[in-house]
Structures are given as C-alpha cells and as structure tokens.
Amino acid sequence: MPALAALAAALTVAALERYVEMRYGTAGLVGLLLLTVGHKANSPTCSSAGAVVLAATVTSPVV
Predict the structure, then answer these.
(1) Is the pLDDT of residue 27 over 60?
(2) Distance from CA of residue 20 to its chain's centroid?
(3) Contact assessment for residue 39 and residue 16, using Cβ atoms and an 8 Å cutoff
C-alpha cells in the first residue's frame, strides 16, 4: 500500500507540473519549481522567490 500511495503522489505532482507548464509557460514552471525546492529545503528565500514568480505569472495581463 505505501508504494501505491507514493505512485499516486508522484502522478499527481507530475500532472500539476504539466498543467502549470501548459497554462503559464516556462515561467510558471520555474516558479513552481522554486516554491517546491524552497519548501523541501526549508529555505524561506527560495520559497518566497517561487511564490513571487508564480504570483507575477498568474496576475500578469495576457498579451
């Protein structure tokens, strides 16, 4: 059962990354990556940078 839960979590993360990349492009993917890495490494600077990049990507006007 733990292997099944790990597989489900990995698939969910992969699907989320794919969605963000399709919806917001490379900048969104970089922001999500920074946010995730900062959270796992307990680095508030990296997490904040990722959150700012994601917020700027999501709220920017579409050209």
Answers:
(1) yes
(2) 7
(3) no
Residues in contact with 30: Cβ distance below 8 Å, sequence separation at least 6, in sequence order: 50, 53
Tokens of 33: 């990556």
pLDDT score of 15 more than 60: yes
Q: Distance (Å, rounded) from C-alpha 22 to C-alpha 45? A: 26
Q: 40-63: per-residue pLDDT in tens?
A: 899 999 999 999 998 888 887 765
| Residue at token pair 């990722």 | 50
pTM for the model stands at: 0.71
Query: Which one-letter DSSP state was computed for residue 61?
Result: P
Give residue 24's identity as a one-letter amino acid code: Y
Core vs surface per residue 19-58: b (16+ CB within 10 A) or e:
ebeeebeebbbbbbebbbebeeeeeeebbebbbebbeebe
